[in-house]
Design goal:
The complex is a heterodimer of chains A (about 550) and B (about 325). Chain A is an all-alpha fold. In chain A, about 65% of the residues lie in helices and about 0% in strands. Chain A contains 19 helices and four strands. Chain B has helices at about 10-30, 35-50, 60-75, 90, 130-140, 175-180, 195-200, 215-225, 235-245, 255-260, 265-280, 290-300, 310-315, 320-330, and strands spanning about 50-55, 75-80, 95-100, 105-110, 120, 145, 150, 160-165, 180-185, 260, 305. Classes of the chains: A mainly alpha (about 550), B alpha/beta (about 325). The interface of A and B includes residues 89, 94, 95 and 106 of A.
Amino acid sequence: MLDNPTFDVARALRPVRRSIGLRQVAFWAFRGLAGGAIAGVLLLLSAHVRAWPATPAALAVLIAGVVIGSAIGCAQWPDLMGTARAVDRHVDLGERLTTALELRATDGVFADLQRADTMQRVSGLRLRGGPKHDRRGIGIGVAVSLLAFVALLDFQPAPTPQTQTVNQALQQRLHRATQILLPRLSRTVQRELPAGRRGATLRAVQRALLQLRRELRRARGTAQALREVSSTQGKIESLTGALPALTTSQLNRLARTLGVRSKTGQSPPRTVRQQSQAVQQRLHHLARQVSHLNATQTRTLGRTLQEAAQHTGGALQHTLRQASKALLRSRLRQAARWLNRAANTVHAAQSTRSQRSVLHQTTRRLSSLKNTISGLHGNPGKANQNGRPATHSQSATSQSGRAQRGNTKGSARTSLREAGPPVLQNRQRLTRSNGGGSGQSRAPAGTPNKGQRAGSAGTPGERDKSGTFHGTYTRVFVPGQVRSGPHGSQVGLSNRAQPGKLVPYHRVVARYTRAARTALDRITLPPPVQSYVRQYFSTIAR
Amino acid sequence: MAQPPTDTIDSSAVYAFIHDAGALEATVRSVIIGQHEVVRQAVLAVLAGGHVLLEGVPGVGKTLLVRTLGAALGLSFSRVQFTPDLMPADITGTTVLREDERGQRSFAFQAGPIFAHVVLADEVNRATPKTQSALLEAMQEGTVTVGTATHHLPSPFFVLATQNPLEMEGTYPLPEAQLDRFLLKILVPFPERDVLEAIARLSIVPSSDVAMALDGRRLVAMRAVARAVPLAAPVIDYAVSLIVATHPDKSPIETVRRFVRGGASPRGIQALVTTAQVRALLEGRYNVAIEDLQALAHPVLRHRLLLNFEAQAEGMSADAVIDDVLRRVPVP
């Protein structure tokens, strides 16, 4: 600058401008660092209040603060005039540079004099000045916030050994559920659904299971995993409800009304399948014969069908009513068509019985999967509904009862064994093992979970010489309603769990807790089991 | 960039300005002990071609300053002591009946004391408004009209009026419109102790002994040089901000909104810029700086701010308001 006879103020200001700009960027980067550190400190503090992995987020906020600060600094990069003003003020040049910059393209006495004066003034100066920021304050702010940040990073609440163990165990269980149990369950469903009925239902079930597998992989806690399983159970139960149904009692009444007899003799058919086939044949026969009936016979048949319709429901009831109306109006062809349709409906209901059975089995296997996820399994012993050790005979009966269901034998047993210990599963089995009952599961209150009935709990037991298990219980989740066990009294859960409906946890936990405590007071349970139940509810209440 | 034509100005004229202005200031300071800021402002006003209102208690050297300034400039000087019975004709002059050697009589204009280059209007607030207005009209127009004849005042023409702030009884405060015609209002403070000691030791040099530093023609040429001093856009912006900030309806400053009835006029910004140009040269700078505006804000603006009753009741002075304005108006 000194060597240059014609003072170019813009050239002289260029390095100053760069210097001021860089200083501006550094200043804002430091401010961003301080802001990011403060935000990071808040995040890390929040992790002390409620445990969550705050360290990555805090580091990200810290870096984001620096980046945003630098961006703001870059946006405020000074122009030449701003630089001239800054230097004038910083070096106390009395607006010489500002004026020289404005006069740089001007010729005149004062312009020349002013340029010369400015050149003379700035020649001895190191033009590195710029706006002075309160670096001391910023420095202190950055230092304090960074110190707090680092200190909090060091003092992050480390997971307790117990928590670590629990987390590891949960991860192992979820891994087992997603990698072994759910694929196996999916294969079982594929195999067990009747060959002709593998249409939309099977696809829907497989889709639900696949989605469950995905959700379980993402699940971060037991509660979330159980929620996902319950949701899948709800979907499958909805599918079950959508299938045409004809209960055994309805079938019996229908057969009785229609005067169904076996082919060979006058005695009624013994099995449900035979009875269903007989009803179908009877309806087809009536459809064929209706054109040969006289008026009185037609009206009589119409009233009979009307009566029969009252014992049924759904599509079958509709078709029977239509057939009855047609007969009463002497529209015989129409009546024949409706009778044939009714026969087909009975056939369809019979066909979906096995399908429904498979879906029920799937739902129950998902309950078993819940046990696996909750870690409430692994004990070979079984509990009866009294919460007492299951005897060998009871176990055998239960096993044989399950084996009697043709479509689930073998594979179902294998699946359940993989998913966990044998489970008190359905009304039929309970009835057999107890020799009667109300049709409700009577497992003692144990560990209810989201509308699921709690089963008994215990520890692995041993078989004595007579083959009886002692002191061993299996903790299970069974769909249904909590009852008090052998006394037959209800213990507080009045509303039945509805299939497919999810109830918020906080709405039911208090009721379940009360129900469990009442049950503990009324029924006989081994002390370890009682303490386990109490501990369980205390834990979830926290 | 505000820049008047500088065709007739060369660098020697600029250097001469700086030299002569410095000489004038040094001459006046050789007579006036202390009061450096007052002397600087008075010289500034003379070089800028404006009238000055001096306010101070009696005996602080107001009249001496004016007489010294007149003597240093080598200009004609007249002094008018304003009293309540002073008539306009006593200032401007009047037409008198004159008889020549042949006995012929005719009316002739007898010029008053205002027909001088430097007029000292002592205690200007003691005259009636009618008399004041006669003086102030001459200040504004540079002419005096008596009857049907208009008479031009000599150039350069300065009025340096004085006021006594203590004896306010029986005075006629100058109207705001007339105050605005003074370029600067300079407060002459009571001297410091060391200045008083120096005054006590030195005998006051009579005005007749003051060396002439400038003449009238040179002074007029210097004005043209001063007008050519450049101002950068941020400096003009700051000057405008200062003036706007004195208006209560436009100012963001609470003090102004509360205590000021009327702000500085556009003539105020002219005065601020003009005097700042002269000051820049006196400071050895070839451009006006923010510092010049700040230094001259008080003498330029103090008589242009009209304070309201609340300000008077709370003892708020115009200088205090200007201090607040200078503090709060951001420097660009």
